[in-house]
Design goal:
The protein is built from six helices and two strands; from the N terminus they run ααααααββ. The protein is mainly α and 171 residues long. It has a two-stranded antiparallel ribbon. Helix 3 runs antiparallel to helix 4. The longest helix has 32 residues.
């Protein structure tokens, strides 16, 4: 319920800014692309959706909308001031706004580094599910292995599995 209301409010603000539903919709088309990229990145890194990731998505959506606003504004300015056709205005506007958009994205990424590196109580790094997913497995027992384990499995790898390895015997 909150997400559609938020998108509608953003659309109305963009509509009043540009004076056109077409340009407001064009700017909002950046959000699904950024969502796909963010979800793909989480999947490739084997990171669960957490509170920190959700805050990162909100920041990502803001950066996507802001970069769209910069580019569409420049395209409209190129078309109005120089009387260019749409194709030439898009090319010139995109080239003119490449540096400001890249600078904005880099600053936003650097601003989110503390949240990405967080290890506090609300982050997913504290959850056992994430920790188990990242640790390698013991060759014999297919259980998580840790340097704190008492025994050793094949190849001398530490193991916390129940049974012989836990008592310190080699597998």
């Amino acid at each position: 319920v909150i997400l559609p209301i938020t998108i509608a409010i953003i659309f109305v603000l963009l509509f009043f800014m540009f004076g056109s539903a077409q340009y407001a919709g064009l700017v909002l088309m950046n959000v699904p692309f950024s969502l796909v990229g963010g979800v793909l990145f989480l999947y490739l890194r084997h990171i669960n959706l957490s509170v920190s990731a959700a805050v990162g998505f909100i920041s990502l959506f803001g950066v996507a909308v802001m970069s769209g606003v910069l580019v569409v504004s420049e395209v409209n300015r190129q078309r109005d001031e120089h009387g260019l056709d749409s194709r030439e205005a898009v090319i010139r506007g995109a080239l003119a706004q490449m540096r400001p958009v890249l600078m904005m994205v880099i600053v936003a990424m650097l601003g989110m580094v503390p949240a990405a590196r967080a290890t506090g109580i609300a982050t997913s790094r504290r959850s056992g599910a994430r920790r188990r997913a990242r640790t390698p497995t013991c060759a014999r027992h297919a259980g998580p292995r840790s340097a704190r384990g008492r025994g050793a499995c094949r190849g001398g790898a530490p193991c916390r599995a129940r049974g012989a390895c836990r008592r310190g015997r080699r597998a």
